[in-house]
Design brief:
Blueprint (H helix, E strand, L loop, with lengths): L14 H33 L4 H4 L2 H30 L6 E8 L2 E6 L6 E4 L21 E4 L4 E7 L4 E5 L4 E5 L5 E5 L5 E7 L11 E7 L1 H12 L1
Parallel strand pairs: 1-5, 4-10
Antiparallel strand pairs: 1-2, 2-3, 5-8, 6-7, 6-9, 9-10
Helix pairs in contact: 1-3
Subcellular location: Mitochondrion inner membrane
GO molecular function: copper ion binding; cytochrome-c oxidase activity; oxidoreductase activity
Membrane topology: Multi-pass membrane protein
Length: about 230
């Protein structure tokens, strides 16, 4: 869960998010190296008078042509690797269908018979003490931890987006189309997200709450929901 003074990402709770944070740090180090080199060259040009040999040097032209290409390769290769990892969906242990509406989510556990519910944000006046305002819902998504989860995302009216930052997932919900994503939670916990596509007046009032639990607790919850 993010706090008010936080400057970085939330703690990663899935392998994909760990990779995204590592790539973010890698890209920042490349940007830092570029900025440092440019500032050094600017300071050098201001401090020293450049000779005609320096200005016309073919070696310099060769360097500033090849160096950017190398930098792009250093950024492109890990980026493509993560994109393929995010698109890869191996045999899931559980499939969840998320349907966006104005302004709530409907969830269907397709591996179970008649296990579905609507998830609305809890109004501030009804919020229990200690819960997060504008983020808590009346029905959380409960999933087993350390299990591959596939999420099929669509919408029933306008464009929405199902996003949970700590899990590294963000998938557009488009009416008449099924998009899918997957994730694995590496630890138990409660992870918060929100609709990330402007979908109307109450766009900021349709949060997402994912609760990852051990398998035996998930089985007890599903049995209770089906009874």
């Amino acid at each position: 869960m993010a706090n008010h003074s936080q400057l970085g990402f939330q703690d990663a709770s899935s392998p994909i998010m760990e990779e995204l944070i590592e790539f973010h740090d890698h890209a920042l180090m490349v940007a830092l190296a570029i900025c440092s080199l440019v500032l050094y060259l600017l300071a050098l040009m201001l401090a020293e008078k450049l000779s005609s040999n320096t200005v016309d040097a073919q070696e310099v032209e060769l360097i500033w042509t090849i160096l950017p290409a190398i930098v792009l390769i250093l950024l492109a290769l890990p980026s493509l690797q993560i994109l393929y990892m995010m698109d890869e969906i191996n045999e899931p242990d559980l499939t969840l269908k998320a349907i966006g509406h104005q302004w709530y989510w409907t969830y269907e556990y397709t591996d179970f018979k008649d296990l579905s519910f609507d998830s609305y944000m809890i109004p501030t006046a009804d919020l229990p003490h200690g819960h997060f305002r504008l983020l808590e819902v009346d029905h959380r998504i409960v999933i087993p931890m350390e299990s591959p989860i596939r999420v099929i995302v669509t919408a029933g009216d306008v464009l929405h987006s199902w996003a949970v930052p700590a899990l590294g997932v963000k998938t557009d919900a488009i009416p008449g189309r099924l998009n899918q994503t997957s994730f694995i939670t590496t630890r138990p916990g409660v992870f918060y997200g929100q609709c990330s596509e402007i979908c109307g007046a109450n766009h900021s009032y349709m949060p997402i709450v994912v609760e990852a639990t051990p398998l035996k607790h998930f089985e007890a919850w599903s049995s209770l929901m089906l009874s």
